[in-house]
Design a protein that fits this description.
Beta-lactamase; about 700 residues; 4 domains; elongated; alpha+beta; Penicillin-binding protein 2a (Domain 2)
Amino acid sequence: MEVKKDILWRVYLSFIGIAVFGVVIIGRAVYIQQVQGDTWREMAKEQQQKIFDIKAERGSIYSEDGSMLSTSIPYYDIYIDFAADGLRQKGGKIFKDNVDSLCYYMAAFFKDKSAAEYKKPMLVGYKKKNRYFLLRKNISFREYQEIKKFPLLKLDPNKGGMIVQANSKRLMPFGLLANRTIGLSRAFVDSNGETRTMNVGLEYTYDSVLKGEGGKRLMQKLSPGVYVPVEGSEIEPEHGKDIITTINVNIQDIAEQALYSVLKENECEYGTCIVMEVATGKIKAMANLGRTSKGDYTEDLNYAIRTSEPGSTFKLATMLALLEDKQINLNSTVDLEGGQWKVGGRTVFDSEEHGLRVVTMKQAFMASSNVAMAKMAVAHYTKDPIQFIDHLKRLRLHEYSGVDLKGETPPIIKTPKSRTWSATSLPWMAFGYEVAVSPLQTLMLYNAVANRGTMMKPYLVNAIQKNGETVQQFEPEVLVDKIASEQTIQLLKESLNGVCNEEGGTGYKLFLGAPYKVAGKTGTALMANGNKGYSEHIYQSSFAGYFPADAPKYSCIVVVRNKPFAKKYYGAAVAGPVFKTLADKLYALDAGYKDNPFQMPAKKDSSTYLFAGATDELSLVAKTLGLNWLDSSQAQSWGRFYALEGKSVLRGQELDKQKMPDVRGMGLKDALFLLETVGLKVTVKGRGKVVLQSVAPGTTLQKQQVVQLELN
C-alpha cells in the first residue's frame, strides 16, 4: 500500500510539473505575441529589410552661351521577379503566354541574341523562382521607353514582375573640350568595396552644388546579397543644381585646336592656353594638353595652374617696378655687352644672339634681354631687394590666383630671408628665374596692364541655377584697383606694343601684316629635368599678351614645354603661333568676315523645314500646333518631320546597330541617346540642331568609333 501511494505521489507530482510547464510556455507565448509582438516583428523586418541610398541626379555644366558641357544621362538595369504572384497564378499562365513574344521582341530590338537564346535562361529563372533575374543591363532611356511596351513587361509589376533599377552616368557631349577645366566625375570602387566618386576641375570645386541631396529606398531581402525595392517606400532625392560657366565653346575649341597643332608638330611634352576677357576676368578658354605614351595628346593635367619658372614673360613685372620707382624711363640706356654679363661669379646670357651693345630700355625689352633686366635690378635694388620684392607682392605673384579651381600649386617669390637666397637671386629673378608662378598668375598681370592697371580676379562660373532659375550670380571682382600709376601703365603698354609691332621686337615677324595689333611678350626659359638638371636642354616657350592692342578685349597666355634637344624652342616660334592662330580667328569672328567658318548660316525659307527625333514627341508637337500631316512612320520609334510638296510628312527611321543612323535635324539630347544606343562615342560643336555628322548615314560602324556632330 505504501508503495502504491509513493508511486501515485510521484505520478501526480510529475503531472502537475508538466501542467505548470505547459502553462508557463503558453503564457510566455501569449506574452511574446501580444506584449512583445510588435518589437519582434520590427526586428524581423530589420533583418529582412534594409534602407539604401538613392543618388540624386547630378546637375549639368553649361557654357556661357548655353551649350551643354557636362551632364548626367540615365541608364537602367531591368530585372524580373519570377516569384511575383501574377506569374505563378494558374500554373504560370501569364508567363507561358508571354515568354515567347517577349523573347522575340528582345531579339528583334537589341539584335545581339536570338529569341531562343533569350528564352533558355528565362525558363531556368522561372523554374528556380529567381526573384531578381537580370534581363538587360545598362540600357538607355529610349531603350527603356521601348521595352516597357514589350509583352510581359508592359503588365503591372505584380503581374509581369518587372523590376527597374535606375542609374546615371556622366557624359561630356564635347568630348575632350575643356575636359580638365570642366572636370571629371568618375565612380570607382575603393579597397573596402565601396563605390566612391573622383572629381577634378569644376566638378570637384562645385561638387556640393552639383551632387544634390540623396534620397532613401526601403529594400526587401530575397536571398543573401539580393534585395528588391519595396513599392512606395522611396524618399525622392533632390537633384543637383546646374552651373553656367564663363567658357565660350568656340574660343575653347579654337584654343585647343591651335595648341594641339603646335604640340603635335614639335612633339612637345605639354602645353596650356588661357584666354581671359580683359574687362571682367572671365576665363573664356582654358586648354591643357599633355603627351601620352602613344605620342598623342589629351587633357591630363591642368598646367594652367601649375607653377614653374616663367622666364622672359616675367620681365614685365621687372619693368613695372623700375618704371614705378622712377629708376628708369623707356629712353634710359643700358649696355647689353653683346648678350653676356658676369655677376656674382655667374654669367647672364641673352637667349637669342643679337650682338647689341648700348640700347634704350624699350629696345632691351623688345629684344628680351636678360642682361638688361639683371643689370637694372642689381643697379637699383641691391641695397634694398625688399623694394623690388614688394612690387611683386603688390602684383599678387606670391599668392594663389583665386580662380575657382582646386589644385593650384603654390607660387614662390624669394626674399633675403629665404634659405636659398644668394648674391645672384635678385638678378636672376629680374628675368624670370628663381621664382615660380603659374601661367594664370602671369596672365593676370598682363590682363591688368590691358585693363588700365586694374587687376581682375579670374573666374570660371557665371551662375548657379536650379530648374532654370538663377539662385546665385557671380560678378566680376577687382583684386587690385591700380597695380601702378597711369603713366607706368601707359609705358608698359608702349613696350608690349613695341615687341609685336616694331622692328627689333621678338614678336615683330610673327604679326607682320596682321589686320589688327597685338601687344605682348615672348618668353624662353631653360628648364631643369629632375636629377638631370639642365643637361637635356629642355625649354619652356611662352607668349603672353592682349588684343586688339588699341582696345583690348581678350588677354591670352600660351605656355609650352618642349622635348629635350628640340630644334625649335623660342617663344615666338612655338608659343607665338598658337597665340596668333587664336587672335586671327577671334578677330575674324568679331569682324564677321564672309569666309568665317564659324559664322552662323543664313536663315532658310520657313516653308521648308526638317525636324528629327522620337516619333511620339514629333507627333505630340504636331498635334499641339494643330498641323495636318501624313504619318508614314510605320510605328518606328525615331523619325523625321519635313515638308514635301507643301505637305507635312512624318517618316520613320529604322535602326540597325551595325549602321550609322541619320541624326541630322535632331536636338542634341535625342542625337546623343540614339548614337549611344548603337555604341558610338560622340563629340559636338555648336548648339541647336544637328546639321552635319562626320560619319555618313548608313555607314557600317566599327567598335569604339567616334562621330562628330556639328550643330547650327
